[in-house]
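A favour, since you know our structure tokens better than I do. Could you add the entry underneath, on a fresh line?
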Amino acid sequence: MEIQARCRADGVYLPNRLGTMEFPLLKRRRLALLFLLGVGVPSLALSLLAFRGIQNELALMEQRQLDEYRALAAQLSDSLLDRIDRAELSFSRLVTAEEGGSPAVMASAFDSLKDHHPLVDVVFLIDEDERIHLPPADLLYRADGTMEVPAAVTWPAQAAEGMRRGQEQEFRQDRPEAAFISYQRAFDSVSDPELRGLALLAMTRAQRKAGHVDGALAACETLLRDYGAVRTGQGMPLGPVALLEQGSMLLAGEDSLRALISLMDLYSRLVAGDWELERAQYGFLAGQAAASIEELTGSLGGSVADSLSHAFAAYRAEEAIRRQRTQQILLFQETRGEDLLSRSGVVSQDPENLSRRFSIDIGGRTYLVSLLEGALSDSGFWGVVMDSRYLTDSLLLPVLRAQVDTAATQWMVRGRDGRTILAGTDSPSGSPAASPSAWPAHFPSAF
């Protein structure tokens, strides 16, 4: 093979075809290697060092965030614990000072407690038979069968004879006017408010049957004013009975506007809880009043009827709120006291397991319970149910807002069980959370 080829007469020798390709390739490879050694390797090393620096900075930022979350959680817990401790201390002092007093005195004391400590939702007592009792509270009605049935009244001989004769004349002989005279004599011969109230109710009924509507309406006013708390043999207070009877008589007399006003008075006082009623009693009275009011406001016109219609709508909304609260409290009352005492460790009498604060789930709702510290009192175990909504909305959230820009920060607060207590509107499930580890261990499933 020819290795070299003579070119022209200038005597220059050129490499063959193989040599012509080999020299530029080696040169390019050498340049690439030099570039890699001079630029690429140092750049890669710097990149690795920068990446490690970023990782370290991220780790430090994450640690700072965790420290901030822990500090915030501790602050939240300390704030809540302080309010809970103060409410419990006031409750303990109140029971020590007022226990054994009259129901009215106890009720007034409990109302004062809740005024000073809105965190307290319900006060309760577990008696020696492990039944849960609710002192007079802000309830729309009581559970059926929980109120004491009035003992049979004992009439003096003369009054008893007048009532017996009046009932015979009213129901068997259909002589309402004669019955009214007999009831009047019984009324005049007694001084006990309970007996006079029952006699006046019979007089009202007899007057209505006899057609003396004005007299019956006046008697209803007296029943409402002077004997409204007296109960019939079935346990119904005379106050709402008088108002319902008054509305019925006015309707029968086609005085629709006065009937509407009377029935509105009845309904508003039922919603306000003016009388202690059982569930069935309240349902009957409120149902009768509401049905008549709806019918009357639909048929009457004018500014007065329109105003009463708006007021009725407001009462209906208030009743819905109070009914929901009442159902929640009565659901708690239906719990066996043994379950609460067992949860707290009282039943076992194990001092190491005694727990004043705990949560209990009933019917899908969590109740935050605190029992008085100490042994069984003369009446039983006193305790309170904390208002969880007030706790989160009025205690927890203000502290959180004071420390966190809740509008610009994704946030949520979880309890020990992992359940979300509060969260910002834009906070995803995986966003940072403040978990109040200092929260009382006795409220594990609630917060």
In short: The chain has three domains: 1-45, 78-130+336-434, 157-299.
